Amino acid sequence: MAGTGGHPVRTVIVVLVVVGCGLLFWLLRYPCVPGRARFTFSFGAEGRAARRALSDARGERRSAYEKAHRSEAEAERRWSDRVAPYRKRVQELQAARAALPKPGQGRAVRPKRWLPPLELHEHVLLFMTPDASDGADRPSVDERLPLAGLAIEFGHTRDNVHIRVTRPDGTCRTEHYPREAEVAAYDLVEDIRNQVLRHEDLLRRLEARDAELVAEIKRAEADLAQAGEAGRPELDTVREAARTRRARADALLRAARDGWKTDAGGLRPWR
Question: Max alpha carbon distance in the chain (Å)?
Fold first, then answer.
């Protein structure tokens, strides 16, 4: 029974808080000092006129800001629509350039003709270690040479044949084989030389295509810049008009707030 009165008390408290918040908000919008409260609370013509002037200025400012924002958004959309095809073209060309193949190791080339430790792939020549290591099923790579710029020589002596690989920096590495492997060694040299030519041809074609794309990207970027500049005057004009509209509305509201302070409430409204 003792707790039955709690509900009404809480209701009253809530009502008082709501009323108090509403009163505080009203006083912030239409402040007053003692003796001038008729402008804030009076329903007479003088009070209503003073409050209407301030309220109208606030509404005008709000409307002006909304119209300014809308006009700027529409102008920016038109500008964006104007440059969108050019921007799309630049992005497509950049994507095409990024998608150009970047030769890695490639597939094995005629592995049945390999001679240890040499292994030939589409884009590299591998020198393998003599034996498997670290638990691997096959020998690991001792040296990996990109094919571009490699010079391959076949040679022989009375006792053996050899394959000499000259790197682009001029250093060499030579592998020796018994004389009975002469035909196999020569075949491998032939395979390596042919693959070097294929690889270098691919690189030339990729470099040429990359240069074409770079040139196309520069032209497309120039077109994009030109389209953007062509639409800039309209955008700048709309933005300047929006700034003027906001400034005019701000000035009107300042004047209304100054008028309220001087003639009505004695305090400057908070906004």
Answer: 126
175 phi/psi in degrees, rounded to 5: -115, 135
The whole-model pTM stands at 0.68
pLDDT at 259 over 90: no
Residues 246 and 68: their CA atoms lie apart, in Å, by 7
Residue pLDDT, tens place only, 93-148: 999 999 999 999 999 999 999 999 999 999 999 999 976 555 556 788 999 999 99
Q: Cα separation of 196 and 148, whole Å?
A: 6
Report the distance separating Cα 222 and Cα 38, nearest Å.
66
Edge-to-edge strands of the sheet including 139-146?
A: 118-120, 124-132, 139-146
Would you call 100 helix, strand, or coil by DSSP? coil
Pairing, β 160-166 against β 151-156: antiparallel
Report the distance separating Cα 86 and Cα 221, nearest Å.
Answer: 8
Please give the pLDDT value at position 1: 45
CA distance 33 to 54: 17
The encoded tokens of residue 5 equal: 């009165």
**What is the CB neighbour count within 10 angstroms for residue 26?**
13
Distance, in Å, from the CA atom of 72 to the CA atom of 79, rounded to the nearest integer, reads 10
What phi, psi does 162 have (nearest 5°)? -145, 155
Report whether pLDDT(5) > 60.
no
Phi, psi at residue 270, to the nearest 5°?
-75, -20
Instruction: Say whether pLDDT at 4 is over 60.
Output: no
* Cβ contact 153:163 at 8 Å: yes
